[in-house]
Amino acid sequence: MTDQEGQFLAAVRALLTEAGFTEGEAGAEGIRTVQHARGVMVGWMPEEIRSVRVRRRGPRRSRNVGRNDLPGLRHAFGLALAAAFRNAGFTVETRGDDWLLVVQPEHRPEL
Predict the structure, then answer these.
(1) Is the pLDDT of residue 100 over 90?
(2) Taken in order 68, 77, 95, 48, is the CA torsion positive or negative?
């Protein structure tokens, strides 16, 4: 990682902290930041979604709730996260349902 990439990652993490988001430890719930060729990927891994057991009647009485069982919550979180970055002047791209790419300034497309 270059100094510039390290500074950009630090700026992304500082904004997350300033906006009230907590970066999680490996294997635990929370925000994840991952260095990317064009910037920093930011995603959310909530413990509640990965480990909640849902009780049902019938032969399959319980099952694990998967990450796709709460798409509204993930979508709302992604919108809040993107808004925080955009309000601070960052360029943000959606990467699937789970990740945002915060683009480094030199990788922004020219208009």
Answers:
(1) yes
(2) negative
